[in-house]
């Protein structure tokens, strides 16, 4: 990090690049939080037939898309000369290493060509911080509680993909709870597949649509972890209960008639009710835990719900009830900024740049050097990267720093 933080204002232009999983995203955001241009290439069709994200196919798709996506974001922002940018921010973890690299290499090339500082960004931090872009940094000021609900389709990201955090400042997060097994988005996707839904547009949205037709009290699936008075999550048991119900009441294959459609909708709605009840119970407790951690005179500004699953209307509705019971505003970024996107990375870049948390521009020689050469600037990707320290009361599974290849936080 450079010593004196640069001035970050309306003239600051940060390009953000996101390639950590299956979406190639880029956007330009100003220092005062105006989104000038955004572009996204989704890979859902590519991975659909494999039932999950296939890393090397994802990397190839990122490589095919990245230049056009960056060019599109710049074009929409009206930036014909990238030298006008103030910095390039890029997701460096957690995520699939080979996918992260595509974004990092693109950022390094732009950095070298146009003498731009690089701002390394944590994917989940970006999911949380985009709430401050959406709601404003006054309404969503530190400290706040954030529920981050994403997909976690890769091992590297699983435990980080369903999180409750106390956000105290940029790079300063206390993990109050995380998932012990599946991420919530993963549970949606797997349940959608078990219900035979076309997951082309993503399993979550398809399941949400089917659930709208069903009775959410028709199946009494157990709410997970009721006996554990902490803020961790578990979705594996619920997934199994749903699978058993599907096997019992729907069997495999078969024609869809009105009755089976109704059963499927009932299962979808009941799954969603329980999955979201679990979220609300953990979030209510997390507000109490967070309040206990605050210093005298400090108060939470709001409850943020972000990440892909936060685009779900039932999730937003039920969490708004939790927040109002706690007398806190609920902040949910617009759905397109909840799923993976370039805007959240650009904004996280703005916030970090303002604190001087950037790296010097790459040189052409560093970028041109072969990957094995000592002159090559390393591509520091962090496939597993904890967002912060775990609260003493949180019991969720964490691997040792060694096996998890944990990188030191950048701040
Ligand atoms: O944050 P995100 O875009 O990518 C990751 O970082 O994982 O989250 C993707 C996840 C997927 O599992 C997707 O099915 C889920 O978010 N999702 C939804 C909805 N939209 C996306 N889940 C439930 N309801 C939705 N409307
Ligand atoms: Zn994400």
From TrEMBL:
GO biological process, one term: tRNA threonylcarbamoyladenosine modification
Reaction(s) the record says it catalyses: L-threonylcarbamoyladenylate + adenosine(37) in tRNA = N(6)-L-threonylcarbamoyladenosine(37) in tRNA + AMP + H(+)
E.C. code: 2.3.1.234
Keyword DNA repair on entry: no
Keywords: Acyltransferase, Metal-binding, Transferase, tRNA processing
Position of the signal peptide: none
EC category name: transferase
Every Gcp-like domain range: 35-347
Pfam families: TsaD
GO CC terms of this entry: mitochondrion
Molecular function, one GO term: metal ion binding
Disordered: region residues: 368-403
Descriptive protein name: N(6)-L-threonylcarbamoyladenine synthase
Organism name: Micromonas pusilla (strain CCMP1545)
């Amino acid at each position: 990090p450079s010593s004196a933080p640069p001035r970050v204002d309306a003239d600051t232009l940060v390009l953000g690049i996101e390639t950590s999983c299956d979406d190639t995203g880029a956007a330009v955001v100003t220092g005062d939080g105006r989104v000038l241009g955004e572009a996204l290439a989704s890979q859902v069709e590519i991975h659909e037939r494999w039932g999950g994200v296939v890393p090397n196919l994802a990397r190839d798709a990122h490589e095919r898309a990245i230049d056009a996506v960056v060019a599109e974001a710049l074009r929409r922002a009206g930036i014909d000369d990238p030298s006008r940018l103030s910095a390039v921010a890029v997701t460096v973890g957690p995520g699939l290493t080979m996918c992260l690299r595509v974004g990092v290499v693109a950022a390094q090339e732009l950095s070298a060509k146009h003498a731009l500082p690089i701002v390394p960004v944590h994917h989940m931090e970006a999911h949380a911080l985009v709430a401050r872009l959406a709601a404003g940094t006054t309404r969503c000021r530190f400290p706040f509680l954030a529920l981050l609900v994403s997909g976690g389709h890769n091992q590297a990201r699983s435990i980080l993909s369903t999180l409750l955090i106390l956000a105290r400042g940029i790079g300063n997060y206390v993990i109050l709870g995380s998932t012990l097994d599946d991420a919530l988005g993963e549970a949606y996707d797997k349940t959608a597949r078990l219900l035979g839904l076309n997951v082309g547009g993503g399993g979550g949205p398809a399941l949400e649509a089917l659930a709208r037709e069903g009775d959410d009290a028709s199946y009494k699936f157990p709410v997970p972890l009721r006996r554990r008075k902490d803020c961790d999550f578990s979705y594996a048991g619920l997934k199994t209960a749903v699978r058993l119900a599907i096997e019992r009441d729907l069997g495999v294959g078969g024609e869809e008639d009105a009755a089976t459609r109704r059963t499927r909708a009932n299962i979808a709605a009941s799954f969603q009710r329980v999955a979201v009840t679990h979220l609300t119970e953990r979030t209510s407790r997390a507000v109490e835990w967070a309040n206990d951690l605050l210093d005298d005179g400090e108060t939470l500004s709001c409850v943020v719900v972000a990440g892909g699953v936060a685009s779900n209307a039932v999730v937003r509705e039920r969490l708004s009830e939790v927040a109002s019971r706690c007398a806190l505003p609920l902040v949910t970024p617009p759905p397109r900024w909840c799923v993976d996107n370039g805007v959240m990375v650009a904004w996280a870049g703005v916030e970090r740049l303002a604190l001087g948390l950037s790296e010097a521009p790459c040189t052409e020689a560093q970028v041109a050097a072969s990957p094995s050469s000592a002159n090559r600037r390393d591509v520091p990707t962090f496939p597993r990267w904890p967002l912060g320290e775990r609260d003493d009361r949180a019991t969720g599974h964490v691997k040792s720093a060694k096996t998890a290849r944990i990188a030191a936080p950048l701040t």
